[in-house]
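Our consortium's second objective concerns turning raw sequence data into structural hypotheses that experimental partners can test. To show how far this objective has progressed, the report includes one record in full. It was chosen at random from the queue rather than selected for favorable results. The single chain below, 93 residues long, was entered without modification.
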Amino acid sequence: MQTKHRSPISQEIEQIGRELLAGIYEALLADGHIETKGKDEKQIMAEVRQAALQWVKRRPLMMSTDFRQSLLARARTLKRGRADREAVLYYAT
């Protein structure tokens, strides 16, 4: 059986996405956009998901790829220096 290999960069990008989503959820709760009193966890999470979807519809996240060699060279340098998160930023640009 053949296993599917995922690159460390792909894993890092997925982790950043999870952290971004967690930050949106946290902000919605901390800023009082979701009333939690008298609700169970399932109800709260359903409201948070709905609010997050509405937030994304109003503020679409745009992605763009820049293939300049200087950015890729910088990403490689950062990766060698173990600055993985910053390397992902340059790589994903």
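The partners drew two points from this record. The chain has a mean pLDDT of 81. The two ends are 35 Å apart (CA to CA). Both points have been shared with the crystallography group to help prioritize constructs.
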